[in-house]
TrEMBL record:
Its EC number is 2.4.1.-. One of its GO terms (molecular function) is hexosyltransferase activity. Keywords: Glycoprotein, Glycosyltransferase, Golgi apparatus, Membrane, Signal-anchor, Transferase, Transmembrane, Transmembrane helix. This is Hexosyltransferase. It holds the Pfam family Galactosyl_T. It is found in: Golgi apparatus membrane. It is a single-pass type II membrane protein. One of its GO terms (cellular component) is Golgi membrane. One of its GO terms (biological process) is protein O-linked glycosylation. PANTHER family: BETA-1,3-N-ACETYLGLUCOSAMINYLTRANSFERASE, HEXOSYLTRANSFERASE-RELATED. The chain crosses the membrane at residues 9-28. Belongs to the glycosyltransferase 31 family. It is an enzyme of class 2 (transferase). It comes from Drosophila guanche (Fruit fly).
Length: 415
């Protein structure tokens, strides 16, 4: 029959082994669940600690435009988070990602435990990061209002010169998006076609974000003290924040220049033929309209190696709504408040022209009209070509002076 004590000991050893094996099995089976409850992330970028600026719950329970509706009870701690402060050179080095390859996304999340999400205003809520890992574009639907910080740094800005009497007598307001370090580009514009800002019916200003670089920030302060023409919003200035920059432009125009008739959004690598643009305005009396170079039936780029990459979760459609390309487009002043408000309540996309003039404008039933004068590309510098165009793209600072000379040379006759 055997020793009873020996049998009892054997029984308890087997029981303990079963308990230990069961515990180990349960631990592995919940491995993929627990981090989802503990990590807070934007896109696929997990946070190692909470961003202090926002503990508010945001449930995404509606459907905007062509985006899929989603519902979550997680804290989307991104109120002050910048969507990717990395520069444009970092964009091509994306790690491979596909929303249809969950194994890849898990690997990506693990490799980016220390990725930094900078706050919109560049304050102290900056997470530890490895300089070898670039920030990525947003990969999941997030309402724009959760990542946009309203307000502007208006110190040294000459608002009265840019938009007197809230734009009552202003025919045209030109707002030029510019990067922090593009001093030479801004100076070449100030010394050429920005000369038309001296007219009583034309206002012009540059639109920038913030920087965490103290030396660069001081340089920007001195530049704005000297010229008083730089509108600065509460977001980190980067390529992937261009939508935030355009929203900052719309917010400023709505607050400080609500009576202006037309607003041109353009970039600091553009040559703008202001006389031609004013003639264009005189010949068009439409309302609720955006004029520019129309892009029809453009398809989303699904390759994560492209800076134009948009995930299926962000936009599931086969093609974008018709939009005007971003280097330059003209807005009628009456649509600015609607565009700004609707954009805040639409799921964010880093492609500002697709987002503002395509998705949001379509939802508001705003007309988008093609105008051949908006070249929005590099073209021949023959004087007559320049005079027939409103906007020419990819212009170096040194080239602005040559085009300006061609525009003003009265000895050159064009048919």
């Amino acid at each position: 029959m055997g020793n009873p004590n020996s049998k009892r000991m054997t029984f308890f050893m087997v029981l303990n082994a079963v308990i230990i094996i069961s515990f180990i099995y349960l631990s592995f089976s919940t491995k993929d669940i627990l981090p989802q409850k503990q990590l807070h992330s934007v896109g696929t970028i997990p946070m190692s600690r909470r961003i202090k600026h926002n503990n508010k719950r945001n449930g995404l329970i509606r459907k905007e435009g062509n985006y899929p509706s989603s519902e979550t009870s997680k804290q989307l701690e991104v109120k002050r988070a910048s969507l990717l402060h990395s520069n444009i050179e970092a964009a091509p080095s994306f790690l491979a990602y596909s929303t249809q390859q969950p194994k890849s996304s898990k690997s990506l999340m693990k490799s980016q435990q220390n990725t930094m999400l900078s706050s919109i205003n560049g304050s102290s809520s900056v997470l530890e990061t490895s300089s070898e890992i670039p920030a990525l574009p947003l990969l999941i639907p997030v309402l724009t209002r959760t990542v946009y910080e309203p307000g502007h740094l208006n110190e040294e800005l000459d608002i009265k010169r840019i938009c007197m009497d809230r734009g009552l007598f202003l025919r045209l307001l030109v707002l030029i998006t510019s990067a922090q370090g593009h001093f030479m580009a801004r100076m070449s514009i100030r010394q050429t076609w920005m000369h038309y800002a001296s007219r009583r019916d034309v206002g012009m200003a540059f639109v920038l974000g913030r920087t965490t670089n103290a030396t660069l920030n001081e340089s920007i302060n001195q530049e704005n003290y000297m010229y008083g023409d730089m509108i600065r919003g509460n977001f980190i200035d980067s390529y992937f924040n261009l939508t935030l920059k355009t929203l900052s432009m719309l917010e400023w125009a709505d607050k400080h220049c609500p009576l202006v008739k037309y607003i041109l959004k353009t970039d600091d690598d553009m040559f703008v033929n202001v006389p031609r643009l004013l003639d264009f305005i005189d010949g068009h009396k439409d309302t609720r309209t955006i004029y520019g170079r129309l892009a029809r039936r453009w398809k989303p780029v699904r390759s994560s190696k492209s800076k134009y990459f948009v995930s299926y979760k962000l936009y599931s459609g086969l093609q974008y709504p018709t939009f005007t390309t971003g280097p330059a487009y003209l807005l009628t002043g009456d649509i600015v408040p609607e565009l700004y408000t609707k954009s805040l309540n639409t799921f964010y996309m880093q492609l500002e022209d697709v987002f503002i003039t395509g998705i949001v404008s379509k939802s508001l039933e705003i007309k988008r009209l093609h105008a051949t004068e908006f070249r929005n590309s590099r073209t021949s510098f023959l004087p007559c070509n320049i005079r027939k165009a409103i906007s020419v793209h990819m212009i170096k600072p040194s080239e602005q002076y040559n085009l300006w000379k061609s525009l003003l040379d009265s000895s050159i006759k064009c048919k």
